[in-house]
Structure formats: C-alpha cells, structure tokens
C-alpha cells in the first residue's frame, strides 16, 4: 500500500474513533513516564543538593595532610568550584583563668559552597542567614562559649598567639553533622588568620578539607583522576551522614520502583488497546484481502500506521508530560520549598524510548498478526481469527518490559526481583481467578436475575475474565505495594526520629554532678535519655598483635570506615542498651566480673575481629585487656548515644570516668542552656536540634515526593482499567444487543453490568491482596531492610475498594452500551 | 468468446473435527465461461459457501485444482492470490461486509485505492449514483439500511470492473422486495460490465434467472 493510502486510512480510523484509544494509551504511557521521571530527576537533584548542605559542599576531600595544589588545579580544569577549610581543636583564652577547648574551623571566601550560615547578636537565639564570613582578625563563636568563657560581643580572645575579636554569635553552620562526640563548641575564623596563631605545628591534629561543588559527572571524573589513596578521603553525603544517606537511598529505590510500575502499567494499557484495535480490524483485513490487498501490503500499512501513531504520541506525550510536571512543580511549589534545578535530558529520552518500545513490544505483535487473517473470514466469521502467536506477543512484551525495567532502574537486581514476583503472581493469580469464578457460578445459581446474569456473564467469558482479573489484580496489586511500602517507609523514618528525640547531648559530667544535673534536667526538659559513664581510650593490640599491624592485615574497607587505633568513647553497662540487639555471641550476666567487651557488628566485621578475640586498650594511660563476647547491631540513624564498644561493668572499675546524657529541649526553651551552663560550667552541651530539624525536613520532602509518585502511578492504574474495560466493550455490546432484542430491560442490563464489574473488582481485590502482601514482605526483607509486617485491614478493604473502583470506572466506560437504543447497537455491530 | 474463466478439477475440502475428518466438498468439477451467469444452489450446510471461497481464491481446497483467468490458484501462495483477486474478482456478501469506519464513498473507493488508482473518487461517485445512493456518499454503514448497505457493497464490487463477480446469498439478510431490487441491480450491472457472475443462493426462483444452475448436496454436484 502506498504511503498516502495508509495515511488516509489512518485518518479514517482516527476520525471514526478506532485509533483513539491506542493513541491515548501511548500518549499517556509516554506522558506518565516523562512526567514521573522528570519530577523524580529534578527532585533527586534537589534532594541531593539539599542534603549536600550537610557537607557545605557536594563532596569534599579530607585529610590530615595539606591538600596538594594539583588537586585544586585538577578541580579548576573540570569547572568544579572549591574552597579550603581547616578543622582543629585549640584552647581559647578569655583571660588568664578562663579558658576552654574549642573546635576551630578556619574558612576561606567561598565557604560554604552549599547551605548557609546563620548569625546573631545574642547567644541562644535562632539568628539570621548571612552571606558573609568573619572579617580578617574577627571570629564568630557558638552560643555556649559565651557563658562558659564569660564574654560578650566585641571582646577579644586569644587563640594561640593571635588576638581575635568576637564579632558575632554563630547559630548555624551547614556542615555541623559528622561525629557528634568529637565536636567541641565551634569557633569560626578566617583561614588567612591561621598562621598568626602558630597553632599549626608538626604533629598537631589538623583536618584539612577541600570542599567541592560541581556536576555529578565532573566530580566522578575528578575522583577517578586524583591520586587519593591512601592519604586522602573522598567524602559524599552517604559517608558523612548515614541518617540522610539511608533515607535518600530508600527514597530513591522507592521512586524508582514507582517509576517502574508506572512504565509497566502504561505498557499493559498500550498492549490492551492494541489488541482491541487489532481485533476490530480482523474483518477489516479480511475485506481488504478479498479486495486484493496482499499480506505484505497489509503488514507494511500497519507498520507505517503504527510508526505514525508512535511519532505523534511521542510528540504529544513529551509535551504533555512536560506540562504535567510543570503543573506538579507549581502545585507543590509551596509544599516543597526547594528550588528545583533544571531537568536533564534523560527523562525526555526515557519518555521517547518508552513510546518506541511500547509501540514495538506491546502494540506491534497484535498488528503483525493481522496479516495472517484469512480472507475466508468474510464468508465464515469464525474463521481466520486464528489466535495471534501468543509466544510472539508475550515474548515481545516481556522483552520490552525487561529492557525498559533495566534501563529505567539501572539495576538488574531490582528488575530480577520485580520479574520473579510478577511471574509468580501471574501463575498464582491465574489459579486463584479460575477458582473464584467457579465459586461465583455456584453462588450465582441462587441469586436474583440481575446477579445471575452477571455471574453467568462472568463465566461465559471465562477466559477473558481470568485475564481481566489478572490485569486488574496486577494493577491493583502494584498500587497496594506502593501504598504499603510508602506507609512502612515513612513509619520507619518517623520512628527513627520521634517527635521528642533527644536533641541535646551533655558530656563531661563528673560523678558528683550526676544527681544535681539529673534533677535540673528533669525539671526543665521534657525527656531525658539514660546516663552513661564514658571514658576515652584506644586499642593498642589485638590478639597480641600491634594494632597498626592488625589493621594493615585485616582492615577490609578502604576509605572512611572505622579504624582500630582511633581514640573512641568507651562505656560500660550491665544491661544491653535499648535499640541494640545482640547478633552474635551472648550478652553478659549482670554480675559478670571478668573484663569483657561487646562490639558493634559492622565495626567488628570491618576490622576482621571475631568472638573470643582479645583486645588491649589504653584507657587514660592504663592498660585494659578484654575478651570479645558478642556483637551488637544498632541504629546509627537513631540520634541516640551509640557506642562502638561497650565493656562489662567490671572492666573499667579502676578508671575515673565522666558521664554523658541526652535530653529534649523545645526550641522556645533554648535559653535554659544559659542557666544550665552557668550552674555547671564544666559540662559540655552539644546541640543537635538543628541537625535533627534538617534531617526531618529532608525526610518530609522525600515523603511528599513518594506520595506524588504514588498518585501518578494510580493514574496509570486507572488508565489500565479503562483500557481493559474498553477491550471487553465489543463482546459486551454484542451480548447486550442480543439480550435487548430478546426483551431484556435496560435496568436488567445495567444491573448485570454493575454486578459483573463489582464481582470482577472483588475478585481482583482478593488477588491483589495476596500478591501485594507477598511482594511487600519480600521487598521489605530483601531490599529495604525493614521488618516484615502483615496488614489485616487490607484483606477487608482491598476487595471492597476494588469492587467500588471497577464498578464506577466500568459503568462509566460502558454507559453508552446501556443507554444506546437497541437498533443502533445492532447496526453498530457490523 | 466461449473460454472458461473458472475451471475446477476434482476439488475436495476435508477438515479435521473432533469426531474425525469431515468432508465438506467431494470432487467438484466445474467450468464457468466468460460472461456466463451461474447459480450454485443447495440446502444450508451443503458446502456452497466453502465452494465459493475456493473458486474465488479466498481459501485453498485440500485436493484438486482451481484455475481463474489462466491462473492456477492452487499453485499460488496467499500473496499471489491476493493480487489475482484484486485484478479479477469482485464480491457481494450476505452480511454486506462494509468497513464500519469508512463512509459509503470511501468503502467504494477502497478497491481502486488499493490498486493505487488516482481517479478512485470520481468513479466511486458515479457508481454510487448508479446504485441510487448518490445522496448518501458521506454516510457511514451504520446510518444505512440493510438494502442500502448492500447497494454500497455492490458498487464496491464493481468498482474494479472485475472479471468475475462472486455473490454469497446477497439477499439472505434482506426482505423479499428489497432483495428483488438488489438482484435486479446485480444483473443490471453484470450486463453493463459484461462480468461473469457466480451466485450462491438457496432460492430456486433467484437461481432461475441465471443461465445455468448447479445443485450441491453434501459436497457433491448432483445436477
Ligand atoms: N472450517 C470448517 N471446519 C469445520 N466445518 C466446516 C468448516 N467450514 C465449513 N464447515 C462445515 O461445512 C459445511 C458446509 O458449510 P458451508 O459451505 O458454509 O455451507 P452453505 O454455505 O452451503 O450453507 C457445514 O456443515 C459447515 O458447518
Ligand atoms: Mg453459506
């Protein structure tokens, strides 16, 4: 067939509404994928940059050595912005008697690369955002240094040999996170003033950082290019803040999963409408063949047609997807106050490819089959509709889905899981659906005429209905899976950071102060964590081997993992702390007198330590030998005091300890810290409320994104529903015409339709619950590392919701069948 | 000119069924000359439609040979038979078989368009006028009565000026009066275009208007 003729036929098809559903399904498939991935893409970038606030940069290179100039040259060459910071502890003298150990951060212009500083003129107030840095010769100090040093703004203090003026109160800095307990109160100064202090001597504990900001790809290249090992650490948000890192990881997996399901649902919708289109064209092709069209002409015609439809839908789908995404961004503008960076090209590529693959894998096979229609069909209607090669159809659809899934997720693992689950689900669902239909027939015998007709209708088209229950059930199941995962992810995040989680830590409490401090905290703060003794110490030997040698031989992790020799906070406890679980070995008896130790499981694994190994510690100059008796697992995200190493109560008897505790303080009560620090000048208070707020706001945004993707997937699910109802429209039409000619009333038909859809939805709901419970259990335990949970309410709600949903959509989709005069229905059949 | 346009030699059609093999046609020999009008009659289920399908090259017999305008259909593949159909054959069906998505005019244009004929539209208009539907060209099949639909089908059948026109119970779905008019129309156009007509019917009266009648009974020609 020549091109013009094909186009004319396509136009005629379109005009008579034949192509409409296919086109709409394709457009919606492309549009959904494009808008979801556009949004996910932008949100992802936004979240990354938001969380990058925790580093004050996108990445940084950290070291105890000076950062070589070649690193900066290489960064510049790639268009990466950078700035230097130095971190070191130092004594600050306000007068001869008053001094305090602080954590100095020296920064250069450009800092912070991400996030903002906040300063104030009064300690313990929230402060204002500033874009400035301390002037040369000036410093900004943490609130808590003002009471402890007894100074106010404008005073000068000594840092090393330099005299510096206190210009502002520093109330917030973006890269405050990291190791909470090594953090003294902050002193922010200019890096240019550091030489004058003369604190930088050979052997002093200085941490140099080169903060970096730039494209992901440029940063990745830089990382590969620089000779980082063994002295320089490359740090991204994941290493530096595990709480944010794991929330982001899970959210990404989830968004990805949501996107995947969107793609699959859209593909199902396309396949359904292509099948319907093809089925409607059986006669068409039969007639064309009697008129002398050859199989190849017909094939060529439909291929050209599909290409044209594909092209049109790609254009419209991309435009539509872009528009939907803009609307979403506008709608959520107030909810998600992050300015979204411009999208990359990937979502558009993905959208176009989805269109192409949907057209090829889902729509082409049924059309290909058309060329095999026998022309005898025009004489004998039952002839020549020989089933489409099922292998070709399913094979192509499976290959197409596989390709899309792998490409979209970039993860073979996730894809394999999805496929296994879908495969198992389909098998089980098929049996379940058949069973349900059988039992429906038995019930139907006793029912009234509308219901009897409905259930008879269900089993008359038994095979189609099993198919429809499968499709509804699958779509419904996918939605339930997303819903359940969303709920459990969010619950999980919330439970890690409960409303009143401790947001202040108190260190350096002497044994004599413990009682008074507890009383004071009980009076002024809402919730107080337990009191733990604490000593600083480090490992010097493991199993009789020098710690450095052991580390060289056994340390499995490169980069920023825990080190054996680092000085650590050690504690002892008779009982296993809350939130800790013993994963190997046994916890000791409360009256244990031997010197035993419990290690955090990842720490033990990273350093190649086993139960029964012995460690020798240097604790405040005393040697302590302990035997490892168990490994614990603990939630690092929980923002509670956590210890790598816990000793049995007897082990540290001889060693003078200080105590630590934690408490919650509402923002409006911050000034209580002033009182607290005046009362107990020697204690150290660490404020993590800002950090917790940041984590919470990120989690909230991630939650919103998750909900948004969920609602977009719901939209694709409805599309599948409509497409599959449309697919059964023609058969229903013929049946209803018959029933009407036999004298059935409209009410009867409407009633039987309603009954049929309700039953279909109910069955699909049952199928969906079974499948989703199973899949969610799998995903939770295997991918998201969450505990498994069963949802009894779902077993009731899902079948009812399924009934209602399919009833409404089904009646809407078939309303013209009921209200059309029988004459028209009869003629329309031709 | 008394040459055979259609010739069949011992055609047989056997189909497998659950109960074993079912013989639908059994040794049919036929010669139909150019310009001849032939009626195939027989009871319902006697194999008329099957025979028509095979003679027109829509289907293949399981045994025997079929020639249409010197083309041995039984040696051709579906692709080649389609070409022969396009050039030589026109159809009228009991159930009209118009494309529901096309207007009357477009249905009639279709065969010529398939051939790549540029004049399709004008010729189709003429034909529609000839069958008395000049005013209904933009109507869709569902907007037309059965008789009118069949007229469109007839116009379409003649659009390519076929050598042979096959009609399978063309009045089967119509009332007697309308059927009569349709038959008149077919014979009228048949004469005008000098087409060979093969008409399947179980109506003896209708058959008597043809020059020759073959009677089919359980797959055999009985007279
Ligand atoms: N493909 C087939 N498979 C099985 N039986 C068939 C097939 N085609 C036709 N028949 C049977 O062959 C017989 C003749 O059919 P047909 O040619 O349609 O008869 P007629 O047109 O004379 O009524 C019928 O009994 C019909 O059921
Ligand atoms: Mg017949």
Regions with little confidence, pLDDT below 50 for 5+ residues of chain B: none
- What's the β-strand tally of chain B? 10
In CATH, the homologous superfamily of chain B goes by the name P-loop containing nucleotide triphosphate hydrolases
Assembly type of the chains comes to heterodimer
Anisotropy-based shape of chain B? globular
Biggest sheet features of chain A: 6 strands, mixed, barrel
CATH architecture of chain B: 3-Layer(aba) Sandwich
Biggest sheet, spatial arrangement of strands of chain A: 2-3-9-6-8-7
Major protein interface: A-B, 34 and 39 residues
The backbone outline of chain A, from C-alpha atoms, is elongated
Task: Note down, in words, how this protein is organized.
Chain A is an alpha+beta fold and 830 residues long. Chain A has 24 helices and 23 strands. In chain A, helix 2 (20-52) packs parallel to helix 9 (295-332) and helix 10 runs antiparallel to helix 11 (390-409). The longest helix of chain A is centred in the N-terminal third of the chain and has 49 residues, at 242-290. Chain A is elongated and about 110 Å long. The mean pLDDT of chain B is 88. Chain B has one domain (4-221): 3-Layer(aba) Sandwich (Rossmann fold). In chain B, the strands form two sheets. Chain B has a six-stranded mixed sheet with strand order 6-7-8-3-9-10. In chain B, strands 2-1-4-5 form a four-stranded antiparallel sheet. The chains are: A alpha+beta (830), B alpha/beta (223). The complex binds adenosine-5'-diphosphate (ADP) and magnesium ion. Adenosine-5'-diphosphate binds next to strand 1, strand 2 and helix 1 of chain B.
């Amino acid at each position: 067939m020549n091109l013009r003729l094909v186009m004319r036929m396509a136009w005629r098809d379109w005009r008579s509404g034949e192509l409409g559903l296919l086109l709409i399904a394709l457009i919606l498939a492309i549009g959904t994928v494009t808008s979801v991935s556009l949004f996910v893409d932008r949100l992802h970038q936004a979240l990354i940059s938001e969380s990058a606030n925790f580093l004050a940069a996108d990445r940084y290179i950290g070291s105890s050595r000076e950062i070589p100039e070649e690193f900066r040259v290489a960064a510049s060459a790639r268009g990466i912005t950078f700035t230097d910071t130095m971190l070191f502890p130092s004594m600050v003298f306000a007068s001869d008697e008053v001094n305090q150990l602080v954590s100095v951060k020296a920064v250069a212009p450009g800092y912070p690369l991400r996030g903002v500083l906040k300063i104030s003129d009064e300690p313990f107030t929230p402060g204002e955002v500033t874009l400035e840095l301390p002037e040369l010769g000036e410093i900004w100090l943490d609130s808590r240094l003002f009471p402890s040093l007894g100074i106010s703004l404008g005073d000068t203090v000594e840092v090393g040999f330099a005299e510096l003026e206190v210009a502002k109160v520093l109330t917030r800095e973006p890269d405050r996170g990291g190791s909470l307990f090594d953090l003294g109160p902050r002193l922010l100064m200019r890096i240019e003033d550091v030489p004058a202090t003369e604190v930088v001597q050979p052997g002093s504990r200085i941490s140099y950082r080169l903060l970096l900001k730039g494209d992901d790809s440029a940063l990745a290249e830089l990382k590969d290019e620089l000779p980082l090992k063994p002295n320089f650490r490359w740090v991204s948000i994941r290493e530096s803040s595990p709480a944010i890192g794991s929330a982001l990881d899970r959210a990404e997996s989830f968004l990805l999963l949501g996107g995947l399901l969107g793609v699959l649902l859209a593909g199902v919708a396309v396949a359904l409408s292509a099948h319907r289109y093809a089925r409607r064209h059986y006669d068409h092709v039969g007639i064309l063949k009697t008129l002398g069209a050859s199989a190849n002409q017909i094939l060529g015609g439909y291929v050209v047609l599909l290409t044209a439809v594909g092209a049109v839908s790609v254009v419209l789908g991309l435009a539509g997807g872009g528009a939907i995404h803009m609307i979403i961004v506008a709608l959520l503008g107030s909810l998600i106050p992050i300015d979204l960076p411009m999208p990359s090209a990937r979502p558009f590529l993905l959208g176009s490819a989805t269109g192409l693959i949907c057209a090829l894998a889902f729509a082409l096979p049924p059309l290909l089959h058309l060329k095999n229609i026998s022309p005898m069909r025009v004489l004998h209607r039952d002839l020549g509709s020989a089933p489409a090669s099922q292998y070709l159809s399913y094979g192509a659809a499976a290959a197409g889905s596989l390709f899309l899934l792998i490409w979209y997720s970039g993860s073979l693992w996730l894809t394999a899981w999805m496929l296994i689950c879908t495969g198992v689900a389909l098998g089980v669902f098929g049996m379940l659906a058949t069973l349900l239909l059988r039992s429906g027939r038995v019930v139907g015998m006793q029912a009234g005429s509308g219901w009897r007709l409905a259930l008879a209708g269900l089993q008359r088209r038994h095979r189609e209905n099993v198919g429809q229950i499968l499709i509804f059930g699958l779509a419904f199941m996918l939605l339930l899976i997303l819903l359940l995962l969303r709920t459990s992810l969010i619950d999980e995040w919330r439970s890690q950071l409960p409303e009143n989680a401790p947001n202040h830590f108190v260190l350096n409490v002497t044994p004599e102060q413990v009682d008074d401090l507890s009383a004071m905290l009980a009076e002024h703060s809402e919730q107080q964590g337990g009191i733990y003794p604490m000593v600083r110490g480090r490992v010097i030997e493991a199993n009789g081997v020098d710690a450095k040698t052991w580390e060289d031989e056994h340390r499995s992790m490169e980069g920023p993992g825990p080190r054996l020799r680092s000085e650590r906070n050690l504690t002892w406890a008779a009982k296993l702390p809350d939130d800790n679980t013993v994963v190997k070995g046994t916890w000791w008896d409360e009256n244990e007198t031997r010197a035993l130790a419990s290690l955090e499981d990842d720490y033990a694994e990273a350093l190649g330590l086993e139960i029964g190994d012995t460690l020798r510690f240097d604790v405040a100059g005393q040697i302590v030998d302990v035997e490892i008796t168990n490994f614990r697992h603990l939630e690092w995200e929980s923002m509670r005091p956590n210890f790598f190493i816990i000793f049995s109560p007897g082990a540290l008897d001889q060693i003078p300890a200080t105590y630590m505790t934690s408490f919650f303080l509402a923002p409006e009560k911050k000034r209580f810290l002033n009182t607290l620090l005046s009362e107990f000048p020697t204690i150290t208070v660490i404020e993590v409320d800002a950090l917790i707020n940041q984590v919470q706001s990120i989690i909230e945004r991630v939650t919103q994104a998750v909900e948004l993707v969920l609602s977009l997937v719901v939209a694709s699910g409805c599309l599948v529903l409509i497409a599959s109802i449309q697919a059964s429209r023609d058969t229903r039409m013929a049946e209803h015409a018959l029933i009407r000619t036999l004298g059935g009333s409209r009410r009867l038909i409407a009633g039987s339709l309603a009954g049929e859809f309700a039953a279909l939805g109910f069955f699909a709901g049952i199928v969906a619950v079974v499948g989703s419970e199973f899949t969610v259990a799998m995903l939770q335990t295997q991918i998201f590392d969450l505990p498994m949970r069963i949802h009894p309410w779902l077993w009731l709600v899902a079948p009812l919701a399924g009934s209602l949903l399919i009833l409404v959509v089904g009646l809407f989709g078939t309303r013209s069948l009921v209200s059309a005069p029988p004459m028209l229905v009869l003629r329309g059949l031709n | 000119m008394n040459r055979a346009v259609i010739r069949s030699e011992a055609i047989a059609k056997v189909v497998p069924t659950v109960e074993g093999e079912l013989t639908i046609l059994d040794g049919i020999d036929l010669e139909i000359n150019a310009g001849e009008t032939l009626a195939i009659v027989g009871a319902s289920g006697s194999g008329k439609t099957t025979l028509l399908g095979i003679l027109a090259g829509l289907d293949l017999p399981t045994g025997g040979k079929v020639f249409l305008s010197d083309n041995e259909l039984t040696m051709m593949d579906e692709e080649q038979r389609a070409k022969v159909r396009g050039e030589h054959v026109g159809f009228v069906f009991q159930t009209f078989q118009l494309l529901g998505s096309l207007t009357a005019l477009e249905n009639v244009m279709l065969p010529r368009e398939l051939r790549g004929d540029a004049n399709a539209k004008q010729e189709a208009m003429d034909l529609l006028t000839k069958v008395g539907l000049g005013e209904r060209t933009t109507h869709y099949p569902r907007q037309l009565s059965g008789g009118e639909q069949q007229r469109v089908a007839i116009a379409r059948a003649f659009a390519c000026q076929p050598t042979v026109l096959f009609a399978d119970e063309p009045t089967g779905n119509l009332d007697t009066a309308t059927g009569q008019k349709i038959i008149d129309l077919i014979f009228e156009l048949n004469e005008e275009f000098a087409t060979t007509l093969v008409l399947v019917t179980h109506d003896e009266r209708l058959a008597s208007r043809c020059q020759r009648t073959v009677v089919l009974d359980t797959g055999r020609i009985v007279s």
